[in-house]
Structures are given as C-alpha cells and as structure tokens.
Specification:
The protein is 3% helix and 38% strand. The chain has 247 residues and is mainly β. It has one domain. Strands 1, 2, 3, 4, 5, 7, 10, 12, 13 and 16 form a 10-stranded mixed β-sheet that branches. Strands 9-8-11-6-14-15 form a 6-stranded antiparallel β-sheet, with no helix packed on it. Strand 14 and strand 15 form a beta hairpin.
Length: 247
C-alpha cells in the first residue's frame, strides 16, 4: 500500500447497541498524524490554563461528523465527565481528517448539559435531556486540511471563558457539526484527564443528533472505544476578573 492511500473500513457494531445505518463506519487516516494545527487566532482568554479533559491521541480512526446520507444538520457528540476544578473554558481542541478532498470547511461546536438528542428520527439537536450551555456555540470557518488526504490535524475552538459550572455534575456533551461531508473526527481514544460517564460500558458511547434518518441516539456504538479525541482547557478565574484584581 502506498503511504498516503486512504482506506475506509466499515466495522460491525457491538451487539448490545443499536445498529448503525449502512452509511456509517470507521475511516482510517492512512496519511498519519501531523503537527499541523488550524487555530483561528490566539485570544486572551487562555492564560496558563488547566487541562480539565483530555484523551489519548494515538488512533488513526475517525467517524464521519456530517455525512451526506444523514443530512447537513447532523452532529456527532461525546458525553464526557470533566476533571479538575477550573470551569471557565477558554479553548477546546479536536482532531479531524478528510479522505476525498482538501477543500475548506467549517466546524461548529456546541456544549450541552447532557445528551443532545431524544433519539427520535429526523429531529434537531437539543431535544434531549441536555440543554445548550449559554455562549457555547463556536464556529471555526475556512478550515483548510493539509495537502495529503487522510492526514490527521488539530482544530482549535477559542472560547470566551464560558462557565461550565452551570452543569453541577461535571458531565457535558461536546457536539460538532461540519459544513460538508467527508470530515472525520478521531475516535477510539481513552480519557486520561476526566472520565467517561457513570453507567457507560468501558468502551463508552457517542451521540448523534440532527440526522434525517433513524440513527440519532445517546448510545451510538462504532465497535471501538467510543471516545472522540478532545482536549479542553479552562481557567479557574476568567481573565477579565484577574485583570480587575490587579488594577
């Protein structure tokens, strides 16, 4: 196999979970990982932040975020439990890759207090147990992948010190929507800061919402460790309050 060939692998799902639609599957980033980071400017919100959630970053597999078959409003999400005590989130990074094209795309991230969906077919995100956390919708536009298809790279979402303490149990759902198909979110990772929610199996679950099909749900299972690559950085005190304390 040539080094940069990309092969899509469709995996069987674990029997205990609802079956994925035929269009769903795990893709392999045969181009490997890179040090390329798409960061839309460096804001002032993050000053010596703490990591309150992080995963391993070793897998070369990804789940498509917004497939054409599921419709343009589809999001993939991961319910996670935060670690540490800092709760003013200033930056969230994920890792993605594309297989068919390196044309630019946008990603929109939203944070919910619980699962993003009721599981009903052809229903919008936000109709589940979780409510949208104020100020948590952030779009990064014009993301240009590396020139080699199948290369993993990082996308950073700047946050203006959004307060996650509004969710008292420390569990949130991190949801992402892509502006086009063929954008895959790195999966099959393991939390190293924070954890999976209580009651989930050791392989965890992910969520899908906004699909026009019947594959929305809080317990989606891709037959791997169902944890997306996510790094969340936060401050104990917002930068604005730190400035007030010294002026």
């Amino acid at each position: 196999m040539k080094p940069f060939e990309c092969v899509v692998l469709f995996l069987a799902l674990a029997g205990a979970a609802a079956a994925q639609a035929p269009t769903d599957g795990i893709a392999t980033a045969a181009g490997g990982a890179s040090t390329y980071v798409f960061r839309p400017g460096v804001g002032l919100a993050c000053t010596s932040p703490s990591s309150i959630y992080d995963t391993t970053h070793a897998s070369n597999q990804g789940a498509e975020i917004t497939s054409a078959a599921n419709g343009p409003a589809t999001s993939m999400a991961d319910k996670i439990v935060l670690g540490g005590s800092a709760r003013f989130v200033c930056e969230i990074a994920i890792e993605v890759f594309t297989l068919a094209a390196t044309t630019p795309f946008d990603l929109t991230m939203s944070l919910y207090t619980d699962c993003t969906t009721s599981g009903a077919a052809n229903s919008a995100c936000g109709n589940g147990l979780g409510t949208l956390i104020p100020g948590s919708v952030v779009t990064v536009s014009g993301i240009t992948p590396p020139g080699v298809l199948g290369t993993l790279f990082q996308v950073v979402f700047p946050y203006p010190n959004v307060d996650l303490s509004v969710d008292g149990d420390g569990a949130i759902s991190v949801a992402v929507t892509a502006s086009r198909s063929d954008v895959y979110w790195r999966i099959n990772e393991t939390p190293v800061v924070g954890s999976i929610p209580a009651g989930e199996p050791t392989t965890s679950y992910v969520e899908r919402c906004g699909s026009t099909g019947s594959n929305n749900g809080c317990s989606r299972n891709f037959g791997v460790n169902n944890n997306f690559a996510i790094t969340i950085s936060a401050m104990a005190t917002p930068v604005e309050l730190q400035r007030l304390s010294v002026e």
